Amino acid sequence: MPSSDAHRPARQAVLFDFSGTLFHIERAEAAVRAALGAELTGHAPELERLGAINGSGQPADLPEHLVQVWTDRDLSVAAHRAAYSGSARHAGLTDRQARLLYERGVSPAAWAPYPDTVQVLRRLRAAGVPTAVVSNIGWDPRPVFARWGVAELFDTLVLSYERGVIKPDPRIFELACQALGVTPTDALMVGDNPDADGAAVAIGCRFVLVPSDAARPPDSLLKAVDSILSD
Q1: CA separation for the pair 159, 166 (Å, rounded)
Q2: Can you give the three-state secondary structure of 99-132, one letter per residue?
Q3: Whole-prediction pTM
Q4: pLDDT tens digits, residue range 100-112?
Q5: N or C end of the chain, less CB within 10 A?
Q6: Using an 8 Å Cβ cutoff, are 176 and 170 in contact?
Q7: pLDDT one-digit tens code per residue, 154-178
């Protein structure tokens, strides 16, 4: 008599990116105001352009001594601090100002979940769907999760600075699937970067792209995981 296991659906899982997917960082002006004072908020656009604020894109003007540090910023805590603090000093901030601005960017107060983040994570947990955060990051986001009451809703965190591998390297997605005990073909990757997060398809994961804008549709994550929750 065949085992009943043969008739059970495959165990599915969801892998989430962190920044721009589950949580978003405050705007540059708010970061500068909180860290350095209202009188310097007018410099926020230039500081962001030069990569001085956590969450900034590729700096428009990166001095040679920071090129490799910036490339490696998500591989260690030291490199992450050096990259953003170095860019802040290059933008004209003092050592103290650079330190304060950096510390603001990695503080729980600087981050907030998207409107449906908590709901989605709770629904997945209630449905018994294992979840992971798969993030290119050079600092510990656990205090952010704790502040918003979602720390216990993840089964594992696969963080680049802890694992020594960054997206789009497929090994980071393999590590997440292994930790959750699922095959890649039964995993859904949700992220805001089609190149980094979308690389999960190389190992057989499905991929859903969500907008990273803080004002994105408030049900973006719900729609992304609808196929999992509706099974």
Answers
A1: 8
A2: HHHHHHHCCHHHEEECCCHHHHHHHHHHCCCCEE
A3: 0.92
A4: 999 999 999 999 9
A5: N
A6: no
A7: 999 999 999 999 999 999 999 999 9
Tokens of 84: 């953003």
Torsion angle, CA of 105/106/107/109, rounded to 10 degrees? 50
pLDDT in tens, 52-66: 999 888 888 888 999
Nearest Cα neighbor of 57 from 33, 81, 87 is 87
Which fold, 4-22+114-229? Rossmann fold (3.40.50)
Q: How many CA atoms lie within 13 A of 146 on its CB side?
A: 6
More confident residue, 44 or 9: 44
CB-CB neighbours of 59 under 10 Å: 21
Q: Where are the alpha helices (DSSP H) in the chain?
A: 28-36, 44-49, 64-71, 77-90, 95-105, 117-126, 142-147, 160-163, 170-180, 220-224, 226-229
C-alpha to C-alpha distance for 218 and 231, rounded to whole angstroms: 22
Contact 105, 84 (CB under 8 A): yes
Sorted by where each begins, the domain ranges of the chain are 4-22+114-229, 25-110
Q: Could you give the CA distance from residue 187 to residue 158 in angstroms, rounded to a whole number?
A: 15
For the segment 9-24, the average pLDDT, to the nearest whole number, is: 90
Tens digits of residue pLDDT in 137-149: 999 999 999 999 9
What tens digit of pLDDT does each residue of 206-227 get? 999 999 988 889 999 999 999 8
User: Could you tell me whether strands 156-159 and 187-191 are parallel, antiparallel, or unpaired per DSSP bridges?
Assistant: unpaired
Beta-strand pair 156-159/206-209: unpaired
Look over the chain and give the mean of its residue pLDDT values, rounded to a whole number. Answer: 93
